[in-house]
Amino acid sequence: MQAQDLSSSTFTGTRRAPVTREPGAPGTDCVAEEVPVALEYNGISHAVMLATPLDLEDFALGFSLTEGIVDSRADVRDIVLAPGCGGLTVQLQIASGCFARLKDRRRSLTGRTGCGLCGAESLPQAVQRPAPLQSDVRFDAAAVSQAVQALNQRQPLRDASGATHAAGFADAQGQLVMVREDVGRHNALDKLVGALLAANRPAQDGFVVVTSRASYEMVGKTVRAGSALLAAVSGVTGLAIDLAADANLALVGFARGDRLSVYTHPERLVWAVAA
């Protein structure tokens, strides 16, 4: 898969910005970058998102899968990154069948950091329900707690800027094997899903942990990726609970330390029995 070298561009994950913390004390601070990223399929523009300009090939792969544009990694034939017009364009070539389907249900998407309905034309289109997970996999509650705690140590962009979200993938033992960051929580999750696809790592073999709240969109993306558990450091929404319940996804909120709030399918978690 081809990816254009962007080393000569000005885009990085962070930049320095002037700041005054108290009268007479000017300085500089590290802030997260946020640039327009256009996604183009077979020559036709589909969406413009605001994202951190790192791991954009992963982002394009993950977005394509979690939005139902493609069904697998094999449906994406090529990816090229092209800077210009103050942002970046990700040019994807996808299988003809996927492109025909995309044209049939094409909608206008204008993304932003906290994207919502993003131009959906009807309520059924806005709240799409993925096919339920068929896996009966279970995870130790201690492994989930371990992965969430490890995620806090694997966020260099957050540490530098204080302005990004992270999504991580952990194996069944709770070992955090992959992390992606972005100014947008949805983008971070899409980047993670894309990284799993690029590495040919099945999402059903582990679970997802995120630093944000868990909305219905985050639930939907996790289910489409194939993972059976989503753990969020913050809270969950009512619609996320409804969607997770229908999709056979274990939805965990307020995952902090050893405390977990399990909102759906608690049978997917195995709790240690006190001696």
UniProtKB/TrEMBL annotation:
Polar residues bias (residue ranges): 1-13
GO terms of biological process kind: Mo-molybdopterin cofactor biosynthetic process
Keyword entries, A-Z: Cytoplasm, Molybdenum cofactor biosynthesis
First and last residue of the signal peptide: none
GO CC annotation terms, alphabetical: cytoplasm
Active site: C115 (cysteine persulfide intermediate)
One Pfam family linked to the record: FdhD-NarQ
Cytoplasm found in the keyword field: yes
Localisation: Cytoplasm
Annotated region described as Disordered, given as residue ranges: 1-28
Protein residues bound to Mo-bis(molybdopterin guanine dinucleotide): F254, A255, R256, G257, D258, R259
Gene3D superfamilies to which the protein is assigned, alphabetical: 3.10.20.10, Cytidine Deaminase, domain 2
Gene Ontology MF terms: sulfur carrier activity; sulfurtransferase activity
Family of this protein: Belongs to the FdhD family.
Known function: Required for formate dehydrogenase (FDH) activity. Acts as a sulfur carrier protein that transfers sulfur from IscS to the molybdenum cofactor prior to its insertion into FDH.
Name this protein carries in UniProt: Sulfur carrier protein FdhD
Gene for this chain: fdhD
